[in-house]
Fold these 4 entries.
Entry 1:
Amino acid sequence: MKIDLKTAEEIEIMKEGGIRLRRVVNALLKQVIVGETTERIDRIAEKLIIKEGGEPSFKKVKGYFWTTCLPINEQVVHTPPSKRRLADGDLLTVDIGMFYKGYHTDFATSFIVGALSNDKITDFLKTGKQTLINAIASAKAGNRLGHISDTIEKGISGSGYFILKELTGHGIGKTLHEDPYVFGFNEKPINKTMLIKPGLTIAIEVIYSLGTEEIVHEKNNNWSIITADMTMSACFEHTIAITENKTLIIT
């Protein structure tokens, strides 16, 4: 495992990239309405990224030809945009990355499209959002990656939901996916996991479902991963940077 710790100058570039990516996201989410296709949302995303002086990170992944991943309901991650139209009450995940001045940033959020919702799904999404906030708080110099994993596991499993263990957060920087993996569960004792040092840049991801930790590839789709029992799933993700004195939320 080779960890690329970033300099203060590199983190500043990533901070600027993150600011620009959030502007893209804020503009993009206004385009997510009932009846819209995920294909059109993706085209808008690419235009917004280029306008901000960046390039779509995901298009740099071999074999992936889109700017975003846009899973709906039981779709979990890596779902390409399509001609599918969003329905009232769909649970949509917007996963997007931007390459800016040689460095990637990565962000994801999940939400209900339209006005149709229920308390069960509202609570499900609130849990994921809060768990990501708590996980970021545990990501600081002197702690270990296991502290992040432990926080995610307690937040999700402790609330009766299911962590999709085969899917993880990751290091990020000059490439979209760098070492280390950032697990959403305790894959080993905390004191056996990597020490968090200043200069570490990672994308923390909370990826979970309502009914199962089992995932499968969607039929007739080379990329999209779905829950094995077809229950709803969600993903919340931020790119962060560790400095001597604090943790920066880049996105």
Note: The chain has one domain: 8-249.
Entry 2:
Amino acid sequence: MSWTDNNGNTHDLDYVIERGGSGAKIGKPVAFIETAWRRYTKHSRNKAQEIQGALVPLLETYKNDAPLIGAILAGVFTDGALTQLRSLGFAVVYFPYESVIEAFNRAHLDANFDEGTADAEFSRKIRAWEGLGRAQRMRVAKALLEINGDQIQGFMDKLKRAVTRRIQSVRIIPLHGSAVQCSSIEEAIAFVEKYSEQSLPQPVVKYEVQVLYTNGDRIEGQFGDKRDAIQFLGAYREERIAEVRKPR
């Protein structure tokens, strides 16, 4: 399913984790993840920019959902390309080319190739892979995970925090008042609905709303109209329901 950004551009992504979605309905995005393989450094910066161009606009479009943006890369990527993505907030796991070759070696396969590799030799390597049984293929996969274990663990920790995060509290700050912290979306909506603007010497200029999550994420909005603040908060009702209806 394609995702459309605020500029009307559509993006077909490798992996999207969402809440409340189905085959016919887009839910709330939890994580956008792209994958890529590059053999040579001359292509790595362009691919990093391509991934950036796909996910950063979606992050802005769905900023009120604060999704994780991630990249799973393999092969040859320069430090500059990796740093570029990480500096933009990407969670990155990188399988260096050497680690891929080592993983295949554990199944007694030589997967090494470069621009000088003949087509016939390349085809022979592919046939050798296709001739492996399931157990041998799993050996390659497990070796790849084992060699890059620390990176994978770090990526999975970030992904887990994004998937399992829950609303911790909601803070409402009328411009002329002190902050009021609420423990649920319903309590926050009730506060805004009942808040008296007429009994104060000066009218309310705006409401500042902060939705705080257990993983440290914070989503903020400022509204000059009470109805807009309530509508903003109402978008998070489903997350509150999801917390209560936990599977047994």
Note: Strands lie at 3-4, 10-11, 15-19, 28-38, 68-75, 91-96, 167-174, 180-182, 207-213, 218-223.
Entry 3:
Amino acid sequence: MKGAVVIACAAAVALAACDSGDGDDGKRRSPAPKREDTAASHERTVRAWSRALNAGEYERAAMFFIRGAIIDQGTEVQLITPAQILDFNRGLPCRADVTRVVEEKRATLAFFRLKRGPGGPCRGIVRVRFTINGGKFSQFRQLPGQAAPPGDPA
């Protein structure tokens, strides 16, 4: 019994010594990312994904989604396999230009102006709420659409 206590104490001391907090281990520590840095990173991710789709580079577009990503376009589905992720990206009927990206508390809201795509003419504004972790989408939730402004080309 006495030996177990000594081992437990030694383990606790060893764990406490792993990060003594003095910062003198010869490595510079980066400060936690600022919210603005995260917002800029999320916006870059959304825009890069959109560029890949617009270029018809579906394999590259699929790389922006984690396995198990939740997709909600009126019905929630989970993309489990790489093939499902690729099929989702390939199946989007419209191309779109990112017009605005807003960082929310726990998500990123992106606005897209739809334009002609593989499915034919497309019009309107689409809003998608993304949850982004490590540069990849874990959730893609398309919100109810808005009508195209008058004179907006299809």
Note: The radius of gyration is 23 Å.
Entry 4:
Amino acid sequence: MHDKLDSVDIKILAGLAEYGPRNVKMLARELNIPRGTVLSRIERLSSSFYLRLLTTVYHTNLGMKKAVVFAEATPGEEDLLFKCMRLNDFYIYLSRCFGVFEGCLGIYVIPKEHTTEFEQFLAELKKTGVAQDIQIQWSTCFHTVNLTGNWFDNNSQTWTFPWNKWLEEIPSKKSELPYTLTDPDSFTLRADQTDLFIVKELEQDATISLADMARKLGTTLQNIRYHYESHVVKHGLVETFQVAILPFERSTSDMLFFVFRFNTAEKMAKFAQSLLDKPFVNIVGKVLGKNTLVSQLCLPRLEFRNFVDALSKLARDGFLQGYYYLFQDLRVGKWSRRTIPYQFFKNGSWAYDHNEHVKSLQDLVKKPAPSTTASS
């Protein structure tokens, strides 16, 4: 029988996001739950619900622009396309996808001065014939949506999905975007080598201590603490803690990536605000210069069609201009996630080798010449 979240689990998950994964003692005190119970629950959630305690990076302040790439594979080349997209060292998330087309979804963080070269890399990828079409959306940083008790019924200890109530609340939401979803004025690099090391470590494990970071880097605790407090925090290099979890039964739910289009900024902002406390939303981003949102969702299959029906109602009412979606393939080997490309930060700037990316691409897709052995 599938393990289910209960109300105590939900409170612990919400508390981990609010107080931080390293503050379990404070969380236990605030919830009036023994620390040992909190720790054992976290361990169970990690094994049963794939709980990961991470940190969301604010790439804008690292001098990087985020790119969301949709690549339609040439039939038969789906896995090769996935391998080709991994060749660019600046991806942070890749997955095979299907729906509107069969192909790949990629999320990249590109140094601001190399965005044109990245677009050229994608053009070269299309020229190889591995991809039939490639679309790129330059996006703001993503707003992380952590799990709360909203839409969780404490009496039945189950999730509810009041779609009609959601539709009613959207028009009343604020018409301003959170700072994470506003188009930035600039993409200023505000970090040094030590800052980026700290950010990289927090991104892959938000529970790591400053002392452990100091040992890994071979420096003093005082140095790490100074960079964390005076640079990482003050310069806004991280957005928030990410309590990443699959809240619904994996075998009967799907991970999807949606694109939502609006004809006004006000409607887009209200819709975005309505998503920021919902249990089926993981992340939300905004396409730069457009009234368009991108979002990763996790939905039970029985609720997916109800969600689409709600979107259809919004479109009929003239609130939503259009949308499309892709299902993500989460089988082993069909997706990949990694941290900021820390290893390519050298001498105070990002080292982006466009020529090497293109050469690696050409080498991977090169077809062996046909045999010319003469018959006897």
Note: The domain at 1-49 is CATH 1.10.10 (Arc Repressor Mutant, subunit A).
